[in-house]
Amino acid sequence: MEKVYRKFLGDSVSSTIDFKNYFVEYKSEIAKVYGPDGEIGVTHAFSNLIKFTEEQENILAHTCSIDKLDPPNPVEKMDVEPLYTRPELYEKIPAPENCCLRTVQSVLSRSEADQEEIVRASKYRGRKITLSDEHKLLNRDMHASDDVVMTILIYAPYSSVKHYNGKFNKIVDKRPRVSQELLVLGSQTLDVLRDAILCVEDFNDTQGDVSENPFDNDGIHQSRAKYPSAMFYFGNNFYIDTREATCKDYSESIREYGEKNGIVFGETRSMEESFFIDLQLKLGHPYVYRHQGICEHIIVFKNARLIHFYDPRVSHLYPLHEAICPSRARFCNICGSLIAKWCVQDCERLPNDPSYLCSDCFKGYLYKDGKKICQFKAYKFCDAKAIL
Ligand SMILES: [Zn+2]
Ligand SMILES: [Zn+2]
């Protein structure tokens, strides 16, 4: 794994960090400056560190005031109103076609459709912060520096094969896209992360074709309940979910492959007995989460730090979703306004095969007095938008 990714990642990955030792050492250092509870102001922290007098402390606070960042004669903000009222004012100047500069030729060779594709493929598109201030009303049970907070990026599952993009009639690489950003505590076990990762594959219905009796909601048929197996691959070790008797060890087949091909793997441990703080990982390195058989996600540890005074210091809030990448919903093929909840196949009354319908259209268009009015297969459908 490390050998494969090294050539792509370059300097963006840290060296391996032993989080436990690192933060024990770091905490003892900052306790000298910030005090044991870590809740004093920055100016006092400086004072503790350098032994300032009160007068020197005031001079420092005045000299380093954030107000000093204001320039003496700030430039007035540009009036952007003409952009909307007179768009022609800022129209692009067409590139001269007979110019031999490579930059100009490159611009000319790009169609507008290509430019649209570049924007759509950006991995930073539309991430929204979901953290609210509600935690301030809850009872805090942690002091600053009590625990370690790790920021983890969960990527949407993606296939490494190339995808055909019909719209632009060419083959494009589908780039990995961050789907969730989570905060976990070092004192938490890995199974809490497994439970916090929202993937539509965990919410699929396992009953198959239910067209004969689609509105019978007896029993739990979510794939997560039926197939609870999951595995993280961090460092060179496997961490498997063993909380349910039906959990399988996904690392077995990988070990067999490793033995045949001379690849040496580390240990297989259980998620619920492994703590984040005990991990030894590289920040920025792509690790793996696997569940539902073949659904694989890249996981990246973005940073690790001591919990801050201004963080939500309520332990039961973690793992905390800090950001979620909005996805496009699949809307009903009939009304076009509600998110689809049914996938219908082999139906002569519908123009698309498969068709995606909301519950109202599905019931109203394909059933009469609770009976099917024609032959088709119907599967319960869970859209990613419904869970993220
Ligand atoms: Zn998944
Ligand atoms: Zn509908």
TrEMBL record:
Q: Where in the cell is it found?
A: Nucleus
Keyword DNA-binding set for record: yes
InterPro entries the record matches = snRNA-activating_su3
Q: Name one GO molecular function term.
A: RNA polymerase III type 3 promoter sequence-specific DNA binding
Q: Name one Pfam family in it.
A: SNAPC3
Residue ranges the record marks as coiled coil: none
Give the GO biological process terms: snRNA transcription by RNA polymerase II; snRNA transcription by RNA polymerase III
Q: What is its main location?
A: nucleus
Query: Which keywords fit this entry according to its UniProt record?
Result: DNA-binding, Nucleus, Transcription, Transcription regulation
One GO CC term on file: snRNA-activating protein complex
Q: Oligomeric state and partners?
A: Part of the SNAPc complex composed of 5 subunits: SNAPC1, SNAPC2, SNAPC3, SNAPC4 and SNAPC5. SNAPC3 interacts with SNAPC1.
**Similarity comment text for this entry:** Belongs to the SNAPC3/SRD2 family.
This molecule's function is given as: Part of the SNAPc complex required for the transcription of both RNA polymerase II and III small-nuclear RNA genes. Binds to the proximal sequence element (PSE), a non-TATA-box basal promoter element common to these 2 types of genes. Recruits TBP and BRF2 to the U6 snRNA TATA box.
Put simply, this protein is called snRNA-activating protein complex subunit 3
Give the organism, scientific name. Bemisia tabaci (Sweetpotato whitefly)
